[in-house]
Design goal:
Chain B: Heterotetramer of 2 MoaD subunits and 2 MoaE subunits. Also stable as homodimer. The enzyme changes between these two forms during catalysis. Chain B: This is Molybdopterin synthase catalytic subunit. Chain B: Converts molybdopterin precursor Z into molybdopterin. This requires the incorporation of two sulfur atoms into precursor Z to generate a dithiolene group. The sulfur is provided by MoaD. Chain B: Belongs to the MoaE family. The structure holds two protein chains of two kinds. Chain A is α+β, with helices and mostly antiparallel strands. Chain A has a single domain, classed as Roll (Ubiquitin-like (UB roll)), CATH 3.10.20.30. Chain A is 31% helix and 27% strand. Chain A contains four helices and five strands. Chain A is globular, with a radius of gyration of 12 Å. Chain B is α+β, with helices and mostly antiparallel strands. Chain B is 37% helix and 36% strand. In chain B, the strands form two sheets. Chain B has a four-stranded mixed beta sheet, sandwiched between helices. A four-stranded antiparallel beta sheet of chain B has the order 5-3-7-8. In chain B, a hairpin with a 4-residue loop joins strand 7 and strand 8. The two termini of chain B are 23 Å apart. Classes of the chains: A alpha+beta, B alpha+beta. Chains A and B meet through strand 5 of A and strand 3, helix 2, helix 3 and strand 7 of B.
Chain lengths: 86, 147
């Protein structure tokens, strides 16, 4: 697949102003952290939401994963704040 | 029995407990979380990651079943808008051993707080809103269980 689906939740979603988008795989970088840096460089709400990776958590194909995890052949990357359920 | 439900509507605690009691283990433990009011809070809004939530909570329930000799686990987590006094989460466990029932119940609620994709937003009188920040002590509590 040429594209990767990115989904956003909570204040990450609100700052970016959308809950989902497609990114060209070739532009996504090797790891989730690379993807985050690429998106943050767009500025505006992206920079606000993703500029400080220490505040972010991620999931790859619906499994929690550290930001340094390689994207590999994943289909969906989720970016969100630390969870607050329970 | 391994029951995991993510839903908008309220749940019946007595019915959930009765189902666990009917497993015949002799010991049932439970935790019910309720939205705490105060400071002008009008409601909590529970957001989640629908494609992931059910499977992730089921994995947490399976972890509990693997770590303790349990006859059953029930986890119900509500999503959507919840006002103070509303039930938000239920965890119930059944076992032949009270220690297993009580410990696994505590494990489940600790892990739900830090290992399931839910986010809480607070809505206050006057229109202010605020995303609840994850608490380091919740993460530390989950870590105490290891794994």
């Amino acid at each position: 697949m040429a594209t990767l689906t990115i989904v956003y939740f909570a204040w990450v979603r609100e700052a970016i102003g959308r809950d989902e988008e497609q990114v060209e795989r070739a532009q996504a970088g090797a790891t989730v952290a690379d993807l985050v840096a690429m998106l943050a460089a767009r500025g505006g709400g992206y920079a606000q939401a993703l500029g400080d990776p220490a505040r972010l958590r991620a999931a790859i194909d619906q499994r929690f994963a550290p930001l340094e995890t390689p994207i590999g052949d994943a289909r969906e990357i989720a970016l969100f704040p630390p969870v607050t359920g329970g | 029995m391994n029951r995991v439900v993510i839903q908008v509507q309220d749940f019946d605690v007595a019915g959930e407990l009765a189902a666990l009691e009917a497993l015949g283990g002799g010991g049932v433990a439970s935790f019910t979380g309720v939205v705490r009011g105060g400071d002008g809070l009008l409601a909590l809004e529970l957001e989640h990651y629908p494609a992931m939530t059910q499977a992730q909570v089921a994995r947490i329930a399976e972890d509990a079943m693997a770590r303790w000799p349990l006859l059953g686990v029930s986890v119900i987590h509500r999503v959507g808008r919840l006002e103070p006094g509303a039930r938000i989460v239920f965890v119930g466990t059944a076992s032949r051993h009270r220690t297993a029932a009580l410990e696994s119940c505590a494990f489940l609620i600790d892990w739900l707080k830090s290992h399931a994709p839910f986010w809480k937003k607070e809505h206050f009188e006057g229109g202010a809103t605020e995303w609840v920040e994850a608490r380091a002590e919740d993460e530390a509590k989950a870590k105490e269980w290891g794994g």
